Structure formats: structure tokens, C-alpha cells
Amino acid sequence: MLPDAVSALFGGTATDVVRECRRCGTTVDATEESCPHCGPESDLVSYEIA
Ligand SMILES: [Zn+2]
User: Which residues of the chain have pLDDT under 70?
Assistant: First the structure.
């Protein structure tokens, strides 16, 4: 388990990408190509959180 200072450092510098389905609003893992609910026809949008 990392000390708080170390985890805060890594957490502060990492860029999180959140991928969301515009059809049903489900948050999808950034590595997924499609929404598990809507399938290949899903319309995903990605947000980068610095
Ligand atoms: Zn969906």
C-alpha cells in the first residue's frame, strides 16, 4: 500500500479517460469499442479528465 503522498502524486498526474454511451448513458471502460447494452451500433463519446 502506497503512502498518501505517493498515491496523490500519481493520481494528480494521470489523465483519466471516461467513455460514455450517448444512447443509454452507460459509462463504458475506455478500452471498450462499444456499449455492452447497445452493441456495435452504440454511439460512444470520450472525455479526458486531466
Ligand atoms: Zn448504450
Answer: 1-14
